[in-house]
Specification:
Elements lengths: L5 H6 L1 H4 L10 E3 L3 H6 L6 E2 L11 E3 L2 E2 L3 E2 L8 E9 L4 E10 L12 E8 L10 E4 L3 E2 L11 E2 L2 E11 L3 E7 L16 E2 L9 E7 L2 E6 H5 L8 E11 L10 E3 L6 E8 L4 E7 L5 E8 L3 E8 L6 E9 L2 E9 L1
Parallel strand pairs: 1-11
Antiparallel strand pairs: 1-3, 2-17, 3-14, 4-5, 6-13, 6-15, 7-12, 7-17, 8-9, 8-10, 8-13, 15-16, 18-19, 19-22, 20-21, 20-23, 23-24
Length: about 325
């Protein structure tokens, strides 16, 4: 069971950082020039929000002897490792490339080809609603695995056929299925943030079983929080708007800041379906309340006492478009 490895995550970091044929160690990520601009919120480059935190300055491999990479190929049959990415845009966009940090691989894996894959956001059962597309393949021997000076470089996968995304968030990562054969597993892995740096629900692992693909999160399997440092280049599609109008439903919040009970009120101007969501800054939905054909003033009540102190965002989607705003939890 994957959950049995949790003590190793916390108590045996030396074992986790050991690898057959080499000894990878935690290091500081060296961001290429384009990603350096991404840290200043360039519109066409996306990355997990945790990478703005100090805890993400150092990233680490997670290798367990005779088991494999916890973020990569392993004896559990993980065929893909996916990171949730949020794009605060009202228009559709296309993914054109992704950069990820790979751990030094064994020589036996150098001839394997890997690719990046993109999935839609998960549904209520934790499964993506659609497979969206894949990048061009790269051979492992061509990965940027230079660690000169203790810096970890990123490998870029390009999409010769850009993948269109029509949602605020999506999953993107690496397809490791080619590391498995009938007789052996070639262990290849990715670096991750330190344990406790990020949200383990944002790292989705895809496992091949006799019943098909199973989707779960790092938090589900290991009860630990970390994420994959990735940089995703996107281009906007101005002719395909998901929310062509920024609506005004007269939303009021009481109280705001809030400690326990929050009331969000809005005016249903036109007949139709309305849905109110509360998300964190990564776009993960924490509360959701749908309303079918309401009329007049609508009050949405949420108990938020269990949420950590911080900034959250509400989204009200209705027939006239979307209204969003900030919620402060104290």
């Amino acid at each position: 069971m994957k959950t049995l490895l949790l003590p190793l995550l916390l108590a045996l970091p030396v074992l986790l950082f050991s690898q057959r044929g080499s000894t990878p160690a935690p290091g500081e990520a060296r961001i290429p020039a384009r990603q350096a601009r991404a840290a200043k919120a360039v519109a066409d480059t996306l990355f997990p929000a945790v990478l703005l935190e100090n805890c993400a300055r150092s990233i680490s491999p997670y290798f367990v002897q005779d088991t494999g990479y916890l973020i990569g190929s392993n004896i559990y049959g993980d065929v893909a490792q996916l990171q949730r990415i949020v794009h605060p845009s009202s228009s559709s966009f296309q993914v054109t490339s992704i950069q990820v940090p790979f751990v030094l691989a064994d020589s036996a894996a150098l001839d394997i080809y890997l690719r990046a894959v993109v999935f839609s956001e998960v549904d209520d059962d934790g499964r993506p609603t659609a497979y969206l597309g894949a990048s061009d393949s790269l051979q492992v021997r061509d990965f940027n695995r230079d660690t000169t000076g203790g810096f970890i470089r990123f490998t870029e996968f390009t999409f010769s056929e850009p993948v269109t995304v029509d949602n605020d968030s999506f999953l993107i990562g690496i397809d490791f299925s080619n590391t498995y054969s009938d007789t052996a597993i070639q262990f290849v892995g990715l670096y991750g943030t330190a344990v406790g740096c990020g949200d383990g629900d944002n790292l989705v692992q895809v496992t091949a079983t006799t019943s098909g693909l199973v989707f779960g999160t790092f938090a589900d399997y290991y009860s630990a929080d970390l994420e994959i440092p990735v940089y995703v280049a996107v281009e906007s599609i101005t002719t395909s708007l998901r929310n062509p109008t920024v609506a005004d439903y007269g939303v009021t919040l009481a109280p705001n800041p809030v400690a326990n009970d929050l009331t969000l009120s809005f005016q249903a101007h036109a007949p139709g379906d309305y849905t109110v969501h509360l998300t964190d800054l990564t776009g993960r939905r924490l509360r959701s309340s749908p309303y079918s054909r309401p009329s007049g003033r609508v009050d949405v009540r949420w108990e938020v006492g269990d949420l950590p102190t911080g900034i959250y965002v509400y989204h009200l989607d209705g027939p006239e478009g979307r209204q969003s705003g900030k919620v402060v939890k104290r």
